[in-house]
Amino acid sequence: MSRTTIIVLVALGAAAAGFALSPVADRLRGDDEEANPSVAAGPQTASLAWRETYGSPGEQLVFTVESLEVLRAGWRARVGVENDTKVAWELDDPRATLDRSFGLMLFTTGKQDELDELNSSGELPEPRTATGFAPALPTILEPGDSWEGTMSASGSLVAGSFARVVFGPLVAVGNPPEDLSDTVVWITDHAYHLEE
């Protein structure tokens, strides 16, 4: 599978702090009027140990997801990003033209094909944007540097959906390596099935 199909270069809209369940619930139900209404995922903790890379060895960005915890009134994830390239990347520039999208996206399946199709058609679900970071995201991630911490937000997640973690945008400071885009929004290959 081509790693470039996973890179999403879209300007993702800013998401409200509290997300309603209905837009995702409509997608999960499809056109079936008789479908059960959506149910919020109950409290749960998943140890994930996901590690994904973008770029060639020695010139790549590394994304990790250690765990995801669904709380009664929100969620939090232990994540990290490592800059194994020769250029710096902006992570938290308030002047950036793209809205921050670090957070979660909910999908109806955990299949890679669904992610690829929605990305290609420009119909990705709106991100459940993280509102808290501990420690704070760095403004610049220098070559060889990494950030690891917890990101979190309030709001329910739909039980039965599949959560993918979103990182980005990361904007190259200068010219990125040949096989990397200058702006990266990463959506994980891995997905976690949210239980009731």
Brief digest:
The chain has two helices and 13 strands; from the N terminus they run E-H-E-E-E-E-E-H-E-E-E-E-E-E-E.
User: How much helicity do the residues have?
Assistant: under 10%
Strand count, sense and barrel status of the largest sheet are: 8 strands, antiparallel
Q: How far apart are the termini?
A: 32 Å
In total, how many domains does the architecture comprise?
1
Indicate the mean pLDDT.
83
Q: In sequence order, what are the helices and strands, one letter per element?
A: EHEEEEEHEEEEEEE
* CATH C-level class: Mainly Beta
Q: DSSP strand (E) fraction?
A: 35-45%
Give the low-pLDDT segments.
1-35
C-alpha geometry: globular
Task: Explain this structure.
The chain has one domain: Immunoglobulin-like, CATH 2.60.40. Helices cover 9% and strands 42% of the residues. The protein contains two helices and 13 strands. It has helices spanning 22-29, 112-121; strands at residues 7-8, 44-56, 59-71, 74-84, 88-90, 103-107, 128-129, 132-134, 140-141, 146-154, 162-173, 183-187, 192-193. The strands form two sheets. Strands 1, 5, 6, 7, 9, 11, 12 and 13 form an eight-stranded antiparallel beta sheet that branches. A five-stranded antiparallel beta sheet has the order 2-3-4-10-8, with no helix packed on it. Strand 2 and strand 3 (59-71) form a beta hairpin. The longest helix has 10 residues, at 112-121. The two termini are 32 Å apart. The model is unreliable at 1-35 (pLDDT under 50).
